Amino acid sequence: MNKALNIYTTLKDYPMGKRLFSWIICRRAPFFGTISPLVTVLEPGKCIVKMKKRKAVTNHLGTVHAIAMCNLVELAGGLGTDVSIPEGMRWIPGGMTVEYLAPAKSDLIGIFDTDVKKLKKLDLKKTFPAEVKCYDTDDKLVMKGIINMHLSLNKQ
Fold this sequence. Notes:
Layout: H1 3-11, H2 17-28, E1 38-43, E2 46-51, H3 66-82, E3 89-100, E4 108-113, H4 116-121, E5 127-135, E6 141-153
Antiparallel strand pairs: 1-2, 2-4, 3-6, 4-5, 5-6
Helix pairs in contact: 1-2
């Protein structure tokens, strides 16, 4: 089993387990800590990450800053891809395309949801487009992001 998925599965049902898992991820990749994420679902093909709207992630208009949303997209897409690709493979983002669809005036939720069968069929010369959608607390789609994930064999 994937290391991140194993840790999440072990912790998720304990009080503060998801918060502890999210903290571990932010220790491994500190830039994610800037959005104080909470990973609420992690399984092959699916990753859901929540982010609270707070002063540190807002812009001069009082909405969630675009780069904070990009950080949310990269976290959900990266973790989702990581637990979905076959054992022995790794990923690295090669680029990201985003669409800002509405002002983000509340807490956000980033959702990566894909068909794992597609990933199992990819060869190493392919790029996987990890799509993440961000919704506000009214279930309004405020942002869409696609991260082009380059897949290769794990060299460890």
